[in-house]
């Protein structure tokens, strides 16, 4: 009944939802199909390196994301951004699966000799057309995107605040004045809130403007940053957040949003500055609003993944160090050559911060923030060109055939004081990792000539977390057809980071912080299978496609091709647990024990409190906590009310666990009962029906048959007896059933050795006579664990009743107990799962045999 009330409330919430009404008033297409299909919201925090993210969590700047890790079982992983560490390159790899699609944020097209900047519509469109021609499936097909360089398959009307789009302009024009009025009235609180934030940000920006002038910053640039800061940090964030919530209400299958605020401010004052970290509070709040909207969706099963595309290095502008631009310095250095380049064309000397306001679209913005290139060359010649936007500069059209490239690289390093210069040696080749023939990449730095990859660790240093991959990617960047003749790097080991733009924080190269991003993923989304211990953008893409292409259980006629497994690095993952068990076992000396994780879970026929039917969701709950043995109650097998699927075996297939099912009710081909699943070898001992209520107490609704299931688990050589049951609703019935369970036909049998574990839904409170009768034989684990306060499991939204139990023999030790109250567990069933870690004595074995047992069991 409580479940029905919550489902009714959810339906009414949907009917009065602002996002729902706005979607209809704006005449946006609403997806009414495939309500059980998975859907995904990808949230990118632009420019936030993993070390800065860790600091923000520790300082309380991002409380919602910290809650996801602590309460919602998200796991925080490292991510390598790739080289170049720029948003366009990372997005191209995630959206299309193409690494290093562009050599930098700004570059010259060698075909057209045109300078391209990825915040321009023309450049973004050209690059995306090439990506689309690769034949890779665009990730955002039929979805939407906000603040993205590429549309990635999203329709024109679904791409917002992108270089080729103009926010919601066309949509609002189509909607008419009535829709606009409704939009304003229904979001009056959001408007007030946004107005207050804009006012606060204006006051702060004026204060920072004055501080910048005091520190000697350029007056015009500091003045221009005031509207940029307000527009990017507040207005763009709030408009995009509202848009994502509307798209969630519409049921779009995949939604992408990029939060630019931190990256914008980190460019200006540095990634570790308090100025930049201030923006993370607002981003955290916006993510919380999106996450809650996703989990309240009545049209899709949404997952929310959060990651950063790259980090930033604390940098010093080249002009600040040397009093002139890199373009001027390079021109002067190469003027000493016998055959010097003619003129020069410079692009992007002052970074991209002031250009991001162009994402709002509109002719007045384009005129306010023009795009200029500074050029000087003789007519009829291809001039020397330099694109310098961040810590990477690309040098083009160096027509000095009589001078070896090594000499030019040496001259640039010595005359301009640039940390490192690289080039493609077309006269020399090598064999790549896949057997392909590649041109050799060489370079020059303070210690002379070097080659990649041979000298990579020398120029990258020992502290670079992703040195091997970054060395390979940097070499491939030099081979990019649009990378030019020379690549000038503002970073190398032992040298302070230099940006060739006017900025205090930079990215785009191969530095240790700019390539060190993070990924915050739900606990049942496995980390990359490569074993490298971190993600890269293509891994995000592969995992997203796998997730989105999964079919609901009711549509499956055969087992799924992919199993759901716990993520490596998760605090409850099997890998970490095994390591903990081995450490504990080594400390115990002669007492050889291992940890067995047992879960009991009433799954309510896989029907959640949101009225959605989803065996996959139950499997995800189980996978997040990685039990060795899981006992389920209220499981349907081929019943018409739940779509005619075999829930028990569907869940076990998703989890790659062995399964035994005991039907308490059997109506022709339809069954209903209990199941036990195990990742260790099992043997079925007995399954059967327990005694019903005495005839005198039989009332309508109290005569549902109840069963029990007894299996034997081979746990590292110890035979563990596991019993699963779901007792009746009347006291008299439960007493008879417990008497049977503890009697000689079940737990009291001479064929039932210790240790014994009895689990299930007993429909009885701890102080009841029934539970006391069980405790004459076994211990209640929630009372057995020292210092543990027993927790209720029913009802999942307000778990005050403790009716689910794990009972064990007196000699077994309880290590830990979990009753997870995440949004997922509160929705998946009307019960919360009860998880108990037990110490089980196992026979002593030599190390080799024991390790083999672990591998076979896993």
UniProtKB/TrEMBL annotation:
SUPFAM superfamilies in the record: Alkaline phosphatase-like, DNase I-like
GO cellular component: membrane
The entry's keywords: Endonuclease, Hydrolase, Nuclease
GO molecular function: endonuclease activity
UniProt entry tagged with the keyword Transport: no
Family annotation (InterPro entries): Alkaline_phosphatase_core_sf (IPR017850), Endo/exonu/phosph_ase_sf (IPR036691), Endo/exonuclease/phosphatase (IPR005135), GPI-anchor_lipid_remodeler (IPR051916), Phosphodiest/P_Trfase (IPR002591)
Pfam families: Exo_endo_phos, Phosphodiest
Biological process, per Gene Ontology: GPI anchor biosynthetic process
Name this polypeptide is given: Endonuclease/exonuclease/phosphatase family protein
Protein's organism: Microbulbifer pacificus
Organismal lineage: Bacteria, Pseudomonadati, Pseudomonadota, Gammaproteobacteria, Cellvibrionales
């Amino acid at each position: 009944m409580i479940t029905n009330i919550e489902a009714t409330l959810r339906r009414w919430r949907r009917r009065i939802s602002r996002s729902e009404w706005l979607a209809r008033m704006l005449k946006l297409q609403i997806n009414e199909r495939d309500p059980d299909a998975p859907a995904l919201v990808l949230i990118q925090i632009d420019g936030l390196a993993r070390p800065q993210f860790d600091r923000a969590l520790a300082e309380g700047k991002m409380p919602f994301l910290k809650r996801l890790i602590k309460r919602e079982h998200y796991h925080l992983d490292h991510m390598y951004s790739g080289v170049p560490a720029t948003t366009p390159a990372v997005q191209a790899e995630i959206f299309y699966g193409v690494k290093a699609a562009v050599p930098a944020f700004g570059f010259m097209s060698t075909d057209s000799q045109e300078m391209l900047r990825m915040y321009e519509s023309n450049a973004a469109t050209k690059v995306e057309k090439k990506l689309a021609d690769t034949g890779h499936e665009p990730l955002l097909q039929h979805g939407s995107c906000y603040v993205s360089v590429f549309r990635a398959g999203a329709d024109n009307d679904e791409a917002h605040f992108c270089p080729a789009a103009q926010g919601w302009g066309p949509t609002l024009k189509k909607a008419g004045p009535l829709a606009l009025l409704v939009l304003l009235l229904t979001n009056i609180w959001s408007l007030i809130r946004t107005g207050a934030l804009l006012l606060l940000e204006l006051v702060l920006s004026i204060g920072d403007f004055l501080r910048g002038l005091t520190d000697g910053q350029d007056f015009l640039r500091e003045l221009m940053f005031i509207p940029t800061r307000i527009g990017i940090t507040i207005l763009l964030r709030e408009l995009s957040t509202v848009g994502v919530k509307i798209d969630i209400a519409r049921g779009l299958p995949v939604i992408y949003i990029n939060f630019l605020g931190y990256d914008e401010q980190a460019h200006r004052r540095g990634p570790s500055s308090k100025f930049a970290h201030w923006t993370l509070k607002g981003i955290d709040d916006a993510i919380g609003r999106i996450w809650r909207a996703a989990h309240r969706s009545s049209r899709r099963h949404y997952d929310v993944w959060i990651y950063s595309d790259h980090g930033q290095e604390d940098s010093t502008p080249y002009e600040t160090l040397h009093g002139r631009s890199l373009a001027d310095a390079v021109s002067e250095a190469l003027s000493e050559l016998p055959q010097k380049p003619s003129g020069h064309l410079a692009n992007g000397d002052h970074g991209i911060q002031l250009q991001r306001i162009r994402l709002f679209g509109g002719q007045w913005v384009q005129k306010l923030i023009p795009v200029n290139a500074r050029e000087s060359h003789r007519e009829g010649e291809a001039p020397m060109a330099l694109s310098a936007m961040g810590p990477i500069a690309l040098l083009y059209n160096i027509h000095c055939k009589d001078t070896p490239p090594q000499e030019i690289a040496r001259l640039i390093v010595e005359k301009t004081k640039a940390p490192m210069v690289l080039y493609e040696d077309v006269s020399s080749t090598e064999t790549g990792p896949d057997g392909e023939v590649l041109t050799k990449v060489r370079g020059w730095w303070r210690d002379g000539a070097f080659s990649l990859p041979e000298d990579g660790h020398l120029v990258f240093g020992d502290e670079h977390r992703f040195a091997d991959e970054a060395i390979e990617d940097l070499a491939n960047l030099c081979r990019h057809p649009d990378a030019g003749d020379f690549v000038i790097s503002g970073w190398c080991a032992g040298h302070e980071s230099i940006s060739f733009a006017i900025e205090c924080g930079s990215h785009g190269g191969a530095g240790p912080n700019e390539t060190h991003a993070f990924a915050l993923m739900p606990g049942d989304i496995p980390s990359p299978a490569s074993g490298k211990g971190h993600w890269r953008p293509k891994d995000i893409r592969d995992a997203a496609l796998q997730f989105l292409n999964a079919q609901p259980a009711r549509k499956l006629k055969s087992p799924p091709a992919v199993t759901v497994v716990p993520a490596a690095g998760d605090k409850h993952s099997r890998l970490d647990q095994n390591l903990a068990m081995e450490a504990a076992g080594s400390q115990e000396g002669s007492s050889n024990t291992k940890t067995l994780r047992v879960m009991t879970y009433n799954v309510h026929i896989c029907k959640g409190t949101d009225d959605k039917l989803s065996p996959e969701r139950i499997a995800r709950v189980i996978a997040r906590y990685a039990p060795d043995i899981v006992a389920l109650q209220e499981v349907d097998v081929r019943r018409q009310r739940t779509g005619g699927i075999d829930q028990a075996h569907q869940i076990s297939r998703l989890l790659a666990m062995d399964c035994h099912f005991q039907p308490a009710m059997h109506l022709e081909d339809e069954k209903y009962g209990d199941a036990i699943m195990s990742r260790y070898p099992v043997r079925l001992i007995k399954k059967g029906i327990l005694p019903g209520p005495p005839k005198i107490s039989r009332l309508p609704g109290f005569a549902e048959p109840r069963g029990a299931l007894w299996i034997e688990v081979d746990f590292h050589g110890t035979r563990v007896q596991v019993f699963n049951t779901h007792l009746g609703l009347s006291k008299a019935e439960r007493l008879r059933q417990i008497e049977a369970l503890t009697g000689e036909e079940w737990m009291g049998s001479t064929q039932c050795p210790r240790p014994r574990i009895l689990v299930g839904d007993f429909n009885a409170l701890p102080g009841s006579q029934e539970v006391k009768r069980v405790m004459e034989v076994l211990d209640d684990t929630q009372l057995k664990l020292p210092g543990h306060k027993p927790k209720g499991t029913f009802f999942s939204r307000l778990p005050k009743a403790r009716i689910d139990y794990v009972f064990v023999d007196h000699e077994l030790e309880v290590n830990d107990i979990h009753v997870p109250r995440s949004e997922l567990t509160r929705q998946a069933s009307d019960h919360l799962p009860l998880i108990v870690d037990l110490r089980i004595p196992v026979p002593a074995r030599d190390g080799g045999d024991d390790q083999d047992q672990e591998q076979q069991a896993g």
